[in-house]
Write a sequence for this structure.
């Protein structure tokens, strides 16, 4: 015998669990309508019982929150003011035996409950957008132990474990590739739209999606330290930290609520003596005053907008640590950039080659034979460039490096050397004038020139430079069109190289040969002149300047703990063009918040005027008050778009 589960009961319990505010509002609405009908039929006792149930069901949460704030935090809460107004209407109705006033109070509770449910759903949109990060984390991982594949929870992974990631799967945690090659979709982490190729030795990040290759990873840090987990923690922190504007509004609300109560008491006692109102009219108008003067819409003017902006930025690979930074980035007038790793790639590359022979093959082969044995970044750049030219080279022996000068060794029985001009010239017969002139020209452009000699003869020159990011010039041009007043470069590099890079990307002002503390002094100087200054750096040697700036922005957050800790905003991919989007988002957030505040205050004034003119009922006052709250909440959600 098959027993069918009580599916309807199951669905109802899930409905109540998932949508408690909506269920309470719907139930309250049904009871209000039923109580109103009972009054029309003259069934007073049943009507009062049903309407009492409507008050309890619709107003329970508000009463609880209001009383908790009153007794535990010693603060008057807007929720409590609503309940007082509703109970006042009910009491007035019983006193005057005008039982429709009890219905008015019940309608107040109902509209307040509906508004709470709608605000909840509106905020859930932002919450879902932010919590989308959570879905990027896998629960289990395939671990290879003793040659066997095991599936274990992420929390049980240990440093040194080897993890297998198959095609199409989420990478379960950060790790280093020790076997395999694939393309990974990193959009969830960096916002990059194009998949990125990863090979042995590269780091991959939890939450990214593997392409067609099978990867074997080695865990090099605890799962809880993975980039995605750190991002999640920062986003959660951003949700709980109130920005300065919200803190001001909250302080204002606490004082404002007290003013409302005092004004409500005066309005409920003085008009009969001063204006000749009846006591019934006085109390009714005082109750409406409590409703329409409450700052619900004002309180909802800021956080929904800022949280929506934070969620929007996260989707674009821009991580705001809190809403305050979203506000501040919109006010930035000057942006200071670090050079190395920010405006440039941070990796030296071969940019020019000049050989004394018709072909550059011999020059590159000799240089690579020596430099491939060097750990210097310039040597690595030369060896990498030679490989890209499909060149092979002989093995060098008796290799010796001269610190700060160059490297020397024997190749196929002949002496070879690579290094600075003085180091190489001391070992050769003569140097052509055109080589010296070309070397000086390249050095004037900020490039490092490497001389190459073999068997007593100069083979040529190789120029190496830290190359400008492809998008740097375009990004800076767009920032200027956006209205940024000044673009500044701060670097510890020499002045000649700094000005060469600045000219290529369109920087307005250069400060070169700076120590970290010197960068802080420059930021302070700029702040005195322009007030709001942003600093963009790699988050390591720029940490003091990032901390001093009005807004610190870190490039290349992937794997950089210092960037995550020091900066206020993190560009998850090394893409300067995202900075323009961050500023636009900050300005949009400022605009939306200002619009919301003006609308909320204007609506309060309109409702107050209507109340004292005697042209508004309690339900209409509640509808206007709660309607304005819902409108500003939905207005804030506009920042989820774009």
């Amino acid at each position: 015998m098959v027993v069918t589960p009580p599916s309807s009961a199951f669905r109802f319990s899930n409905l109540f669990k998932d949508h408690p505010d909506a269920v309470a509002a719907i139930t309250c609405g049904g009871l209000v309508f039923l109580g109103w009908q009972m009054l029309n039929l003259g069934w007073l006792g049943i009507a009062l019982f049903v309407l009492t149930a409507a008050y309890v069901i619709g107003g329970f949460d508000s009463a609880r929150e209001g009383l908790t704030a009153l007794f535990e935090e010693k603060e008057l809460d807007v929720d409590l003011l609503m309940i007082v107004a509703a109970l006042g209407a009910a009491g007035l109705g019983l006193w005057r035996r005008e039982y429709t006033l009890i219905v008015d109070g019940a309608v107040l509770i109902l509209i307040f409950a509906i508004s709470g449910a709608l605000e909840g759903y509106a905020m859930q949109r932002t919450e879902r957008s932010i919590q989308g990060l959570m879905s990027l984390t896998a629960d289990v991982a395939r671990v290879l132990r003793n040659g066997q594949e095991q599936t274990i929870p992420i929390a049980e992974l240990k440093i040194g474990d080897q993890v297998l990631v198959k095609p199409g799967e989420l990478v379960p945690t950060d790790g280093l590739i020790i076997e395999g090659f694939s393309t990974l979709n990193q959009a969830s982490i960096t916002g990059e739209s194009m998949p990125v190729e990863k090979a042995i030795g590269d780091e991959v990040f939890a939450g990214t999606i593997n392409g067609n290759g099978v990867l074997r990873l080695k865990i090099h840090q605890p799962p809880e330290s993975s980039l995605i987990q750190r991002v999640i923690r920062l986003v959660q922190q951003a949700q709980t930290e109130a920005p300065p504007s919200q803190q001001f509004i909250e302080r204002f609300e606490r004082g404002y609520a007290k003013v409302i109560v005092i004004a409500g008491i005066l309005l409920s006692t003085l008009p009969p003596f001063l204006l000749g109102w009846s006591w019934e009219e006085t109390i009714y108008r005082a109750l409406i005053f409590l409703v329409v003067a409450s700052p619900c819409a004002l309180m909802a003017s800021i956080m929904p907008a800022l949280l929506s902006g934070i969620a929007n930025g996260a989707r674009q690979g821009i991580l705001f640590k809190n809403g305050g930074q979203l506000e501040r980035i919109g006010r930035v007038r000057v942006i200071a950039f670090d050079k190395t790793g920010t405006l440039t790639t941070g990796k030296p590359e071969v940019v020019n080659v000049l050989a004394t022979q018709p072909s550059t093959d011999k020059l590159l082969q000799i240089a690579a034979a020596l430099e491939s044995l060097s750990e210097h970044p310039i040597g690595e750049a030369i060896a990498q460039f030679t490989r890209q030219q499909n060149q092979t080279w002989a093995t060098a022996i008796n290799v010796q490096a001269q610190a700060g000068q160059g490297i020397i060794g024997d190749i196929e029985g002949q002496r070879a050397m690579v290094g600075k001009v003085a180091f190489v010239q001391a070992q050769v017969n003569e140097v052509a004038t055109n080589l010296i002139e070309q070397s000086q020209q390249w050095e004037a452009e900020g490039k490092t020139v490497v001389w190459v000699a073999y068997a007593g003869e100069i083979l040529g020159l190789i120029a190496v430079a830290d190359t400008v990011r492809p998008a740097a010039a375009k990004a800076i041009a767009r920032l200027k069109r956006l209205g940024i007043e000044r673009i500044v470069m701060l670097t510890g590099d020499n002045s000649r190289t700094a000005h060469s890079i600045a000219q290529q990307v369109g920087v307005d002002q250069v400060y070169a040969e700076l120590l970290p503390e010197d960068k802080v002094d420059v930021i302070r100087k700029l702040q005195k002149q322009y007030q709001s200054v942003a600093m963009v750096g790699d988050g390591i040697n720029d940490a003091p300047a990032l901390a001093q700036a009005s807004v610190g922005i870190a490039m290349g957050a992937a794997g950089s703990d210092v960037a995550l800790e020091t900066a206020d905003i993190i560009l998850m991919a090394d893409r300067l063009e995202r900075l323009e989007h961050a500023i636009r988002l900050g300005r949009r957030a400022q605009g939306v918040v200002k619009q919301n505040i003006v609308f909320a205050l204007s609506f309060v004034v309109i409702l107050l005027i209507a109340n004292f003119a005697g042209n508004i009922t309690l339900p209409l006052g509640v509808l206007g008050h709660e309607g304005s709250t819902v409108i500003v909440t939905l207005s804030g959600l506009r920042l989820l778009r774009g």
